[in-house]
Structure of Adenine deaminase:
Amino acid sequence: MKKELFINTIKASTKAIKCDLVIKNITIIDVFNKDKFTDTVGIKDGFIVGIGDYEGTEVIDGTGKFICSGLMDAHCHIESSLVTPSEYYKAALINGITSVVADPHEIANVLGTEGIDFMINSSNDIPFDMYFMLPSCVPGTDFENSGATLEARDLKKYYKSDRILGLAEVMNFPAVVNCHDSMIDKLYDCIGNSKVIDGHGAGLSSMMTNTYRTANISTDHECISAKEALEKVRRGMYVLIREGTAAKNLNDLLPAVKENNSTRFCLCTDDKHIDDMLRNSSINSSIVKCIKQGLKPETAIQMATLNPSVLYKLNNKGAIAPGYVADFIILDDLDNFKINKVYKNGKLVVSDGKLLDSVCKENSSDFNIKNSIHLPTLKEDSFNIDITNKSILNVMEIIPNKLETNHLKIDITDDIKEKYKNHILFKQCVNKDLLKIAVIERHKNTGNIGLGILKGLKLNSGAVATTIAHDSHNLIIAGTNDKDMIFAANELEKMQGGIVIVQKETVLASISLEIAGLMTNKNYIEAIKDIENLDKALNKVTSNLDFNLFLTLSFLSLPVIPDLKITDKGLFNVKEFKFIDVAE
């Protein structure tokens, strides 16, 4: 803040000069005491300067309404929305979110520091606070091929920026436990810059959690049970409760939240499609779910405002109090968190669910788009799975709305066999919901293709493919027949990345994600139309889905979340931390 503005806020607080905006007779959500009271709020030069009897250039009567701080998403990946930062913020503001803590490790896995720079630069000069954590694990593990590798020396320069809040989710826990030089250097640099370190530790043992906390890792958004969440809170960690498009953990974790420990919990989305943000809301929806399950509204709001601000050392954000940034929401209804208006830095940005034209910055990405899709020539036998003289299949089963999978062992029967030359091959069986899944390395054209068998995707024909495949973002594809799988992969190469649905070697619907194979350069309205077309096309190749197929598919390649996952190097048993054969 400039000195002149600083002086003005003090003068306005003493009533020596008028406030810019005064909201009278409004019920203030007090996140410090988890209470509420009715009073008047004074705002000057983008800051709250007082609570009490103030006069302003503009005066609003808040009778019957509520005011709370703008919401913060404590952990997200902008790339998962499928749009660029300069489009993402528009949907976020509509949901009352005025700040996010983003981890750009999706694009970093493809483009390295060039990708980080793009995310930072394309979020400059927007009426929104987009903070970043530096990707800690690029690549995520040694069990896959990514497009880039980031070492501590690559990240060090970024810590100078106030928008860099720390080191993002540390998912390579063996590197922490075994004190690998590269990981230790990243952790030590972050600590030396007095920044925060985020964790990623689904199902970690008590001893492993001890080690994580000793390494100064402060958060986890991968808890899968209330018991695990409480154990991490007891060890001094923050638990970020996730409600994304694919992974939804709020119902499982909320029993861990009590009035006496609520300050250690935050709300986040992690990965959420842009259409889902507008159709089903975001952090605001999580607040409503918390309230409906018995949490005090003030406590739920604290988890989405003050708590993440304290966690990430944003000391003047997250509350309606003097000296705090004037990012706030006016609510018509507290229990249903019905948003009337959203303000950013004391300026109105959303009214009655609509963005003001003045805040809609044109999406003008100056990113030099380059092709990031480099595939081998696929042949009719590229996806063959040899089961000659084998009796058991290791099958990956989807758990709806979870990132975890089940590891099934299924007997090989005649209806899933076919002869090929002198071999017996696995044959997809729609009646048993047994499909082929493949991950094709797409960054350096190594020719690597990992193969597996998938249950639970519920395709009845065709194939679905995408270049979003966490975390290295190779090309992942699942299908009921090899021809459609090959056709879909080739189509994605022509599109320079994206999502495609194929049936009988014909494209039913697609969205081009030409920026690193992860994001479209279209505006968010156009992107939503493309996603809606994909959803309609899904009805032709599947039915009775109770999860988001695209995001679910994209996480089947993440080899740090149990039980089975698949990478371009093969089928991976996460619990045993080793590759296994598809058939035995």
Residues 392-580 form one domain. The longest helix spans residues 524-541. The longest strand covers residues 19-30.
